[in-house]
């Protein structure tokens, strides 16, 4: 167990086979994560949409009821308060799912920046246990426990249904694994949470379900090159640099961070996020220095690991833009030795297109 | 897994097997278990010197990097090349998957290390933290 922003969380579940097995289960079968540490903020009221538009960079007006979008809350300088998933629950009713490590900061920031709007902000983080059922067999597992027709729920959409006897449960086809899967939100009392967890484990048994910890959550998201707050995104990194401008809608109207980002057009940035793969022996890890081939420090690894499904050593790193073209060779300093890496396409892993 | 009685052990979780003037070194079952899936082992070159208590290489699981500490001083005569391609051997049988062999500089150094029984209690106490 490790302390994760005040949550006592397992890095892995060794009795079920550990990190590697967890990672592979999610890529090929199904795995289940307790992600109750994620925070939830509900914004509702007559001007809820205007408020959400003001505090996030994606265009929430494009959402239908039952749809979600990846977005981010920004500081005026265009850097990150946090990344969020915005769910449109109803007309003028939105749920923002935020990170654990930034929860208090996010809530205060949302309250502060929505003051001018006629809406209410509710902090619901402690009301829900959030369970993620991830992998190609995630749908088949969860379908056994709910009356909702999951085949009708598209990726990044959600529905409500009875799950494990709990009526009106929010079921979202979202996740942080670069795989298909669902996240369900159930009442946070311990008895209910434990019962749902155990029922999910039973339902997934025929597919070889394993409980998954923070370790595989990290390696899975890294293979998918999904950003992690404090690593690829932070208060000192802007949207252009972080390669997240496909979620940035500058033409939707004004929002916090817009002006600075418009000025700092992509051509104006000096550093950018790249995906690296080791071509010599060595595992690049968080915080290691990136060097040019002459040994000069040019940047920093934000996340790096052995990638259990790809069976490669991979990293995300910030480097000057001239090092961004594919196949550019750089080095990562590992225990005082330069280990050669090359720039590869983002993401490292893309899930296969759906068969059905 | 039982700790072989003819091995000596360090507080940093290495084992040493002495055979005349040759010492064979690996990491313990407790160490591999705490590390989890081992994916990388970095070993010194044949001919290099190692010094008791100093690092001589590293072992990495998916989640962590861990230094290897020399139980004794000596000159490296052989390394287990197989671990370059199948580092998971260490998870399968840590007491068989040796890492390096050395010619001992001072055979008396080995006597300062823990016995199997002492190490077992030491490792058990550490896991209960």
Overall description:
The complex is a heterodimer of chains A (356) and B (129). With 356 residues, chain A is an alpha+beta fold. Chain A folds into 2 domains: 2-221, 2-Layer Sandwich (Gyrase A, domain 2); 270-347, Beta Barrel (Elongation Factor Tu (Ef-tu), domain 3). In chain A, 18% of the residues lie in helices and 33% in strands. Chain A is built from 7 helices and 19 strands. In chain A, the strands form 4 sheets. Chain A has a 6-stranded mixed β-sheet with strand order 10-11-12-9-3-13. Chain A has a 6-stranded antiparallel β-barrel with strand order 14-17-16-15-18-19. The mean pLDDT of chain A is 95. Chain B has 129 residues and is α+β, with helices and mostly antiparallel strands. Chain B has one domain: RNA polymerase II/Efflux pump adaptor protein, barrel-sandwich hybrid domain (OB fold (Dihydrolipoamide Acetyltransferase, E2P), Beta Barrel), CATH 2.40.50. Helices cover 21% and strands 35% of the residues of chain B. Chain B has 4 helices and 9 strands. Chain B has helices at residues 29-35, 82-85, 89-92, 116-127; strands at residues 7-9, 14-19, 22-27, 38-42, 49-50, 55-61, 65-69, 74-79, 100-104. In chain B, the strands form 2 sheets. Chain B has a 6-stranded antiparallel β-sheet with strand order 1-2-3-9-8-5. Chain B has a 3-stranded antiparallel β-sheet with strand order 4-6-7. In chain B, strand 1 and strand 2 form a beta hairpin. The longest helix of chain B is centred in the last third of the chain and has 12 residues, at 116-127. The two termini of chain B are 20 Å apart. Chains A and B meet through helix 1 of A and strand 4 and strand 6 of B.
């Amino acid at each position: 167990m490790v302390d994760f922003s005040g949550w006592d969380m397992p890095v892995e579940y060794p009795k079920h086979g550990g990190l590697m097995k967890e990672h592979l289960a999610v890529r090929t079968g199904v795995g289940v994560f307790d992600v109750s540490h994620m925070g939830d903020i509900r914004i509702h009221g007559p001007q809820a949409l205007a408020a959400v538009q003001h505090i996030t960079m994606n265009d929430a007006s494009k959402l239908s009821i039952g749809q979600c979008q990846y977005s981010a809350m920004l500081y005026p300088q265009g850097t990150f308060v946090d990344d969020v998933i915005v769910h449109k629950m109803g007309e003028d009713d939105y749920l923002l799912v935020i990170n654990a490590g930034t929860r208090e900061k996010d809530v205060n920031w949302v309250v502060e920046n929505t003051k001018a709007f006629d809406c209410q902000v509710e902090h619901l983080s402690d009301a829900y246990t959030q369970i993620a059922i991830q992998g190609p067999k995630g749908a088949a597992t969860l379908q056994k426990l709910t009356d909702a027709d999951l085949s009708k729920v598209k990726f990044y959409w959600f529905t409500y249904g009875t799950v494990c006897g709990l009526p009106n449960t929010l079921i979202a086809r979202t996740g942080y694994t670069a795989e298909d899967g669902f996240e369900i939100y159930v009442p946070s009392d311990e008895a209910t949470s434990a019962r749902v967890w155990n029922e999910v484990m039973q339902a997934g048994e025929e597919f070889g379900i394993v409980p998954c910890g923070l370790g595989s959550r990290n390696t899975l998201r890294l293979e998918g090159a999904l950003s992690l707050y404090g690593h690829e995104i932070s208060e000192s990194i802007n949207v252009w640099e972080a390669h997240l401008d496909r979620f940035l809608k500058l033409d939707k109207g004004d929002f916090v961070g817009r002006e600075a980002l418009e000025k700092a057009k992509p051509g104006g940035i000096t550093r950018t996020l790249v995906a690296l793969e080791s071509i010599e022996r060595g595992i690049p890890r968080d915080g290691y220095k990136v060097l040019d081939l002459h040994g000069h420090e040019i940047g920093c690894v934000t996340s790096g690991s052995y990638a259990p499904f790809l069976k490669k050593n991979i990293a995300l790193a910030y480097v000057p833009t001239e090092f961004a073209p594919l196949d550019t060779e750089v080095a990562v300093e590992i225990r005082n030795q330069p280990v050669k890496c090359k720039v590869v396409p983002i993401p490292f892993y893309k899930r296969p297109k759906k068969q059905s | 897994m039982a700790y072989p009685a003819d091995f000596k052990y360090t507080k940093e979780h290495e084992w040493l097997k002495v055979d005349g003037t040759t010492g064979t070194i690996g990491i313990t079952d407790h160490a591999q278990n705490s590390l989890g899936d081992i994916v990388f082992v970095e070993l010194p070159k044949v001919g290099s010197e190692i010094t008791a208590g100093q690092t001589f290489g590293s072992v990495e699981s998916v989640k962590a990097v861990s230094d290897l500490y020399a139980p004794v001083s000596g000159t490296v005569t052989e390394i287990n090349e197989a671990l370059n391609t199948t580092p998971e051997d260490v998870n399968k049988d840590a007491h068989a998957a040796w890492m390096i062999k050395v010619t001992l500089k001072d055979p008396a150094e080995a006597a300062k290390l823990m016995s199997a029984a002492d190490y077992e209690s030491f490792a058990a106490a550490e896991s209960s933290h």
